[in-house]
Amino acid sequence: MNSLVATSRNFRRAAQLLGLDSKLEKSLLIPFREIKVECTIPKDDGTLVSYVGFRVQHDNARGPMKGGIRYHPEVDPDEVNALAQLMTWKTAVADIPYGGAKGGIGCSPRDLSLSELERLTRVFTQKIHDLIGIHTDVPAPDMGTNSQTMAWILDEYSKFHGHSPAIVTGKPIDLGGSLGRDAATGRGVVFAAEALLAEYGKSISELTFVIQGFGNVGSWAAQLIHERGGKVVAVSDITGAIKNPNGIDIPALSKHKTETGSLNGFHGGDAMDMNELLVHECDVLIPCALGGVLNRENAADVKAKYIIEAANHPTDPEADEILSKKGVIILPDIYANAGGVTVSYFEWVQNIQGFMWEEEKVNQELQRYMRKAFTNIKAMCKTHDCNLRMGAFTLGVNRVARATLLRGWEA
Ligand code: NAD
After folding, report:
1. pLDDT, tens only, 101-111
2. Active-site entry in 66, 102, 231, 257
3. How far apart are CA 210 and CA 192, in angstroms?
4. Which helix H or strand E contains 208, and what residues bound it?
5. Is the CB of 216 under 6 A from ligand 1?
6. Is residue 409 predicted with pLDDT exceeding 90?
7. Residue 69: beta bridge partners?
8. CA separation for the pair 151, 408 (Å, rounded)
9. Alpha-carbon span 169 to 357, nearest angstrom
10. 288 pLDDT band (50/70/90 cuts)?
């Protein structure tokens, strides 16, 4: 099932539980605007090459639309659409005053030089600058893009609209980025895990963890779990997987990865099959890499009692059903990885105020938002007698529906 069908299915279930009017349901599902642009650039050798860029602006009832820009060969309209929709519900779950958007360019960033990436980013910005804006649509980094990409967008956008640091988040600190943004998604994942585990009278320090993906989100989540005394017993990334039943020394693994670019060859654990990682013995499984990694092929073999969805869409709907029947508790992506967009919101607020926060304040506020959202999700689970995924969806969809009705959508 593709991600758009899966997201829309969750939305429809939530709409049903909430008893939403069918006309309102339809209107909430259809994106506000879909943008598709041609981006032609000269390559370094002078030849011309063309790419297609997308931006889907899903909903703005609660505020400016917000979401990442992804550079990846498989960027397609359905995927971008699903992720834009997911952002609408995610920002509402986190209760930050934003709607949802997502964008991307179908390209392979690894095959482009830095100057080619800069030209491509500037051409894309030229094509969409009139349709994004500080109070309209605020992009951020996603797969294949980073703070440098945001710096180029800021610069190109500012040529048309004057100096506008709040046009993007995830910027370099020197251009108005927020302290704490780099760690924010991983930190939010850990705050979310703490909130969930406390419900079951447990704490991170007494449990074992398996983490798939050791990039931005996975490495920060692993580090913060390690600092809290949790035992990370297996970790993987695209280069390989390692395990250690006594707990991996995460700072040493990070150092090894920085020095060698790979998890392979790390002496503090044994190499393991990457596919075995997801079904490895542990209390908590945290997928921090790709979508769809938990599916009907492996769901029945998962040993974890809790799954924290740090990646977007790691569990496909069939796996969701299998895991639920097994009694596995799943903390859904639209809550678990909302730490990133929440600190993006803090970055935007700081840019608009022209005032920088201390990192401690960023982290404290993030914890407050994550705790509050969890309490609100639990309340929806109780009201609608549903699991955490539907609790989060009903919370998000209800907030967007209420905002839409208050603004008056029928006129
Ligand atoms: P990243 O590119 O920094 O890291 C991805 C990691 O996944 C890398 O370590 C990579 O080696 C690993 N990986 C790729 N294929 C793999 C495979 N087959 N098996 C095991 N590992 C594999 O990306 P990120 O920013 O850490 O994002 C990870 C996930 O979290 C994505 O799904 C992303 O959409 C989601 N997410 C990220 C943020 C954020 O702020 N970075 C926010 C919300 C959601």
Report:
1. 999 999 999 99
2. 102
3. 16
4. strand 208-212
5. yes
6. no
7. 103, 141
8. 37
9. 15
10. very high
C-alpha of residue 17 to centroid of ligand 1, in Å: 32
Which residue's C-alpha comes closest to atom 3 of ligand 1?
215
Contact 180, 187 (CB under 8 A): yes
What is the three-class DSSP state of 164? coil
Q: In what order do the strands lie in the sheet with 329-331?
A: 270-272, 240-243, 231-237, 208-212, 284-287, 306-308, 329-331
Q: Cα separation of 192 and 171, whole Å? A: 25
pLDDT tens-digit map of 389-406: 999 999 999 999 999 999
Give tens-digit pLDDT for 359-368.
999 999 999 9
Burial class (CB within 10 angstroms; exposed 0-12, middle 13-18, buried 19+) of 213: buried
CB 292 within 8 A of CB 176: no
Look at the pTM and tell me if it is higher than 0.90. Answer: yes
Cβ(91)–Cβ(62) below 8 Å: yes
Q: If you compute the radius of gyration of the chain from its CA atoms, what whole number of angstroms results? A: 21
Helix (H) / strand (E) element for 235: namely strand 231-237
- Per the structure block, which two tokens stand in for 146? 């980073």
Q: Return d(Cα 44, Cα 327) in angstroms, integer.
A: 55
**Nearest to 61, CA basis, from 82, 87, 35, 80:** 87
CA 342, CA 143: separation in Å to the nearest integer? 18
Name the 3-class secondary structure at 146. coil
Ligand 1 lined by 315 (C-beta under 6 Å) = no
User: Hey, what are 86's tokens?
Assistant: 């997911």
DSSP 185: H
CB 288 within 8 A of CB 218: yes
Looking only at the bridges linking them, the beta strands covering 329-331 and 306-308 are parallel
Which domains does the chain show, CATH number per domain? 29-164 (3.40.50.10860), 184-336 (3.40.50.720)
